Hints:
Blueprint: H1 4-9, E1 17-20, E2 24-28, E3 38-42, H2 54-74, E4 79-83, E5 94-99, H3 115-128
Helix pairs in contact: 2-3
Amino acid sequence: xxxxxxxxxxxxxxxxxxxxxxxxxxxxxxxxxxxxxxxxxxxxxxxxxxxxxxxxxxxxxxxxxxxxxxxxxxxxxxxxxxxxxxxxxxxxxxxxxxxxxxxxxxxxxxxxxxxxxxxxxxxxxxxxxx
Length: 130
């Protein structure tokens, strides 16, 4: 059974896409811990990030770096935090989280946003993705 992220890649489930190329996709987390919280995934479904082929692993991180730069230009923050948890969805992914201080990386706290806010943020990050 395909993961929820594979279903997003296949267009079966919508997302607030911020960047995409032939191998990777970045989209806003629908349960963000802060505005701009973004997930970066390989389009190829691999459960554990350290099971990715080396080229795909490196490519994922380089793509995430470009997405982080776009987020940083869009969302007021000190820097972008990166974390890989890997337990909640069986599809390798990186969380990119705008940080003002250490409290903003607390995944037990979530913020709510409506569809208009999601679309606005996604569009702004897309505009800064180069």
